[in-house]
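Late entry, evening session. Most of the bench is empty. Finally got around to the prediction I had been postponing all week. Sequence below, unchanged from the version circulated by S.P.
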Amino acid sequence: MRVPRLLALLSLVLLTGCVGSPLHNALHPDRQFYEKDGHHIVVLKQPDHWAAWYDGKKLFYFVPNLNDLKPIQVEAIEHISGCKVLDARHFMNGQPAYLMAHVICPDGTTL
């Protein structure tokens, strides 16, 4: 009975450090912050997309309606990346209102 628990715990510890995981993103040194109208948005360039998620700045908080939050997240990504968002959608990965976005930059590169 102890072996399955140990394997589950070990798997959880290993997965929390994976690229794109909530813990990895929350501790990433390259994350940047954007604030508008009292909304705190964290932005991070991932290997294959830009990401933005909501940070309530408290231990417990409610995430705003995603339809209201998405334009602010897109604005945050465009402001920080210097690129134009082509496509963005919310993705459930354990982070509040995680938005995956693909961009095109002034030099023509895309991500």
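Two things to note before I forget:
The chain has a mean pLDDT of 87.
The two ends are 46 Å apart (CA to CA).
Will write this up properly tomorrow.
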